[in-house]
Amino acid sequence: MSSSASTPQVLRRTNLKAVLDVMRHGGACTGTDLIDRTGLTRATVIAVCDDLVRRGWVRELGAERNEGVQKGRPARRFEFNGEAGCVLGLDLGVATVTAHVADLKGTVLGRAAQRIPGRAMEATPDERLETITGTVDRVLEDAGLPTTAVLAVGIGVATVVDRHGNIAGGHQLSSMFDLGLQTEVWRDRAWPVLLENDANLAALAERWRGIGQGTQDLAVMLAGERLGTGLIESGRLLHGSNGGAGDVGSLQLVEGVGSQDGIARLARHWGTQALAEGRPTLIRELVGPGTTRVSARFVFEAAARQDPVALQILDKIARRIARVIAVLGTFLDPELVVLAGAVADSAAALLPTINRELPSLTERPPRVEVSRLGDGIVATGALRLALDYVEENMPSLTPGGQPAAVG
C-alpha cells in the first residue's frame, strides 16, 4: 500500500486517539472543550465523537444550556464510557493466584485469590493452570462480567520477563511460569495477554496509585520472601537487554547482605534460630509451646512490644536492607525507594534504622517509604499494564474486544 493511500487512515486513527486521550482524563467534555484541548476543527471533533458513540467507547450526555443564554442550540456533551469493557490483572505467585478486574477507568470491580493446592513448589503445570483459570472465572463471575467484556489481561510472574513480554529461560522459577500463558491458556477467548515481572508491575502500580505518583525516578522493592526490584527512570520502566534490570540476584557479592532473602524470610529464619538457641524472648510465648518454626508476624509483634531479641532481629534486617538500598542508590540514583508487598505494613518499623544507616553507605541516599497498596500491588500494576494496552490500541478495537477496521 502506498503512503498516500494510508494517510487518511493514519490521520483518522490519530484524531480518534487524541479525542479519547482527552476524554479518558477530563470527565464530561463539550465539543468546544475538545477543540480547545486537541487543536482539531469542530467538524473533525464532532465526526470523531459521533464515530466513538456508535462504537460504544463514548456516551453522549444530555445537553446542558449555559445560564443566561436564551438562544441557540445547547452544547452537546460527551464522556468516555468506562463500562465499554474491562481488563484483568493477575499476580501469579509461587503459592497464590490473585486476580483483579477493573473497568476502563481503572475502577476495581472485583478481586479474587486462590492458593495453589498442596505443596505449591511441587504443583504440576495442570494444577497451576487450573488454579489460574479458576481464579479468573471466579472474579469475572463475582463482578457479573462476561468473558467477552475482557479487552486485555496483564499478568505478573515471579521470574524474569524480557522486554518483549516473554519469560526468559534459565532463571530461578522460570519453568514454573512458562505455561503458555500468552498463547494456549485462553486461546478460545482471544484475549490479548501481556506478561511482566512482578516487581516491575509493583513499580507501575506505585507510580499510578501509590506514593510514587509524579515521581520520575523510582525503585520499588518487593521485599517479602525474596528481594526483587522494579525500576522506573525518567518515567520509563527499565528492562535491560534480557529483562534482568532490577533482578538483584548478585546480592551474594554485597558485604553484609549475601542473598536475595527478603524481610519475611529473614525474620522467620532468625526468629526460629533464636528459639533453637534457647534465648529468652516473647517470640516463644507468641508461637506457643512445642512449636519450633516462627512466622515473621510473631517477630514483628514481639518487637512492637519491645522484646529485646525481636528488636535485635529487626535491627539486623534493617541494616541489611539499607545496604541493598545503598547499592540501588549508588548505581541508579532513584529519587524514591518504596518497600512493597505483603510485608509493607510491618516494614514501617525498619525505616528509622534504614534512614539512619543510609548516609554512611551512599553519598546520595534516596528517600525511603513503605507502600500503602498492600499485597494487591502486583495485581494493581497488572491492571495498569492491561489498561495501557487498551488505551494504545483503542482506535482499532471495539468494546467486544475484536479488531475494528479504521478506515
Q: How would you describe this structure to a colleague?
A:
The chain is α/β, with parallel strands linked by helices. It has three domains: 78 residues, Arc Repressor Mutant, subunit A (Orthogonal Bundle); 141 residues, ATPase, nucleotide binding domain (Nucleotidyltransferase, domain 5, 2-Layer Sandwich); 139 residues, 2-Layer Sandwich (Nucleotidyltransferase, domain 5). Helices cover 40% and strands 18% of the residues. It contains 13 helices and 13 strands. Strands 6-5-4-7-8 form a five-stranded mixed beta sheet. A five-stranded mixed beta sheet has the order 11-10-9-12-13, sandwiched between helices. A three-stranded antiparallel beta sheet has the order 1-3-2. Helix 7 packs across helix 9 and helix 7 runs antiparallel to helix 10. Pfam families: MarR_2, ROK. InterPro entries: ATPase_NBD, HTH_MarR-typ, ROK, WH-like_DNA-bd_sf, WH_DNA-bd_sf. Belongs to the ROK (NagC/XylR) family.
What is the molecular shape?
Answer: elongated
Overall residue-averaged pLDDT value: 89
Query: Helix count?
Result: 13
CATH top level class name of the largest domain: Alpha Beta
Strand content: 15-25%
How many separate domains?
Answer: 3
User: What percent of the residues sit in helical stretches (DSSP H or I)?
Assistant: 40-55%
Low-confidence stretches: 1-5, 402-407
Write down the CATH topology of the largest domain.
Nucleotidyltransferase, domain 5
> Between the first and last Cα atoms, what is the distance in angstroms?
13 Å
Main β sheet profile: 5 strands, mixed
